[in-house]
Design goal:
Elements (H helix, E strand, L loop, with lengths): L4 E12 L2 E13 L4 E5 L6 H9 L7 E9 L3 E2 L5 H7 L4 E4 L13 H12 L4 H14 L5 H6 L7 H14 L4 E5 L7 H15 L5 E6 L2 H7 L2 E6 L2 E7 H6 L4 H8 L40 H5 L5 E2 L12 E2 L7 H10 L12 H26 L1
Parallel strand pairs: 3-8, 3-9, 6-7, 7-8
Antiparallel strand pairs: 1-2, 1-4, 4-5, 9-10, 10-12, 11-12
Helix pairs in contact: 3-4, 3-6, 4-6, 6-7
The structure holds adenosine-5'-triphosphate.
Length: about 375
């Protein structure tokens, strides 16, 4: 069976005043029917640009796409004529964004908008579209769906608006749903309810879902497989259990270690990934994470690192597990050694803010030295 979505070597670049920057750099992954694939990573790592590239929502004049985005057996979305792409969006491709107001028109009632979406993308007549819209709102468990049909977006709460957007994304029975931080703007209780709703709805359709979030707790709750992105690249790709039980990339370890859990009730004791994601103008030549990595050695900085199959002793048989780190197999041993020596390891990351703040200085110095060397090379 072919994948529902096959993204192959996607590269998205922007022409900016300071030259061309590549926000998504050779990203490949696939989504099967019925599967939820999570994309996780810190702010600025390219999650949204990946989604917006698949949907072709970026400014056409300043954006260049390379690679392939093959949908349902071969349609390359990157080469689809504009009018066909418009038909795909909201039809076979459903979208849910962080801010529900970006998907809703403030001057039309909820009913008008749902009916319009259904009439554009299906053969339903007005009466059938009305019934279907109410049915979809009921499915999202919004209170009093018939009343909501007559209301305008500003008359609803944030959680209710997001339920409407979910109803809108699902009403035309899309094959693929792209959800970009759909719960981030909501309070914790509403967030939990919306996640529960999404988890429930996925069992009612065989659509594939691409779920973008910076929150590993959300990943654990809703995703089957996960890709972790860092500075425009995939740095780890595996199923959700493997990611949480045997993470292989130091960045993933850092993200997991710095995520509060039920056991860690004091977030001050959580380790910190030092520094910040470099800007797209400062992309390091070798491993892009090296400047922030407690395990980086000179070899990490000498050449670009490929995404490859993880072959550690703890690798789970039969589970695809890819990692972009030349030391991934050594790291469990290095951490065990640290622990044997009595150090508080926290997967190699410091829990002390002062200690963690030393590293960005080192990172910045290194990035600057690399930039200088690259400039010299170009002369
Ligand atoms: N139109 C644009 N022109 C130039 N750079 C852009 C443009 N859009 C995004 N970027 C840059 O691309 C990089 C990736 O951005 P993206 O929004 O995909 O990150 P993200 O991982 O989704 O982060 P967040 O969680 O904050 O949304 C960032 O450095 C961002 O500044």
């Amino acid at each position: 069976m072919s994948n529902l979505l096959e993204v192959a070597d996607l590269r998205t670049s922007f022409a900016t005043e300071d030259g061309v920057v590549t926000a998504v750099d050779g990203v490949s992954f696939s989504v099967e029917r019925g599967e939820v694939l999570g994309i996780v990573g810190e702010s600025g790592c390219g999650k949204s640009v990946t989604a917006e590239s698949i949907m072709r929502l970026l400014d056409e004049d300043s954006t260049t796409y390379e690679g392939e985005v093959l949908f349902d057996g071969g349609t390359d979305l990157l080469n689809l004529p504009d009018d066909e792409m418009r038909r795909f969006r909201g039809g076979r491709l459903g979208m849910i964004f962080q801010d529900p107001m970006s998907s809703l028109n403030p001057v039309y009632t909820i009913g008008n908008q749902l009916i319009e979406a259904l009439r554009t993308h299906t053969d339903l007549d007005k009466k059938a579209a009305y019934s279907r819209a109410v049915e979809m709102l009921t499915l999202t468990r919004i209170p009093d769906p018939e009343l909501r049909m007559k209301q305008y977006p500003h008359q609803l709460s944030g959680g209710q608006r997001q339920r409407v957007v979910i109803a809108m994304a699902l009403c035309c029975e899309p094959d693929l749903i792209i959800a970009d931080e759909p719960t981030t703007a909501l309070d914790v209780t509403t967030q939990a309810k919306i996640l529960e709703l999404m988890a429930d709805l996925r069992h009612k359709s065989d659509a594939g879902t691409l779920f973008i979030t910076h929150d590993l707790g959300v990943v654990a709750e809703i995703c089957d497989r996960v890709i972790v992105m860092y500075l425009g690249q995939v740095i780890e790709d595996t199923d959700v259990h493997t990611l949480f039980n045997t993470p292989a990339h130091p960045y993933t370890r850092g993200l997991l270690a710095s995520t509060p859990s039920v056991e860690t009730d004091n977030s001050q004791d959580l380790p910190i990934i030092p520094g910040a994601v470099p800007t797209l103008k400062q992309v390091p030549y070798g491993c892009r994470f090296a400047a922030r990595c407690p395990f980086a050695i000179e070899a990490c900085r000498e050449a670009p690192v490929e995404l490859r199959e993880y072959a550690g002793e703890d690798a789970v048989e039969g589970v695809g597990h890819k990692v972009r780190c030349i030391r991934a197999e050594e790291i469990p041993g290095l951490i065990a050694e640290q622990e044997r020596r009595g150090g508080e390891s926290a997967d190699g990351f410091a829990t002390d803010i002062a200690e963690a703040e030393e590293a960005p200085t080192e990172a910045a110095e290194h990035a600057e030295a690399e930039m200088k060397a690259a400039e010299e090379d170009q002369k």
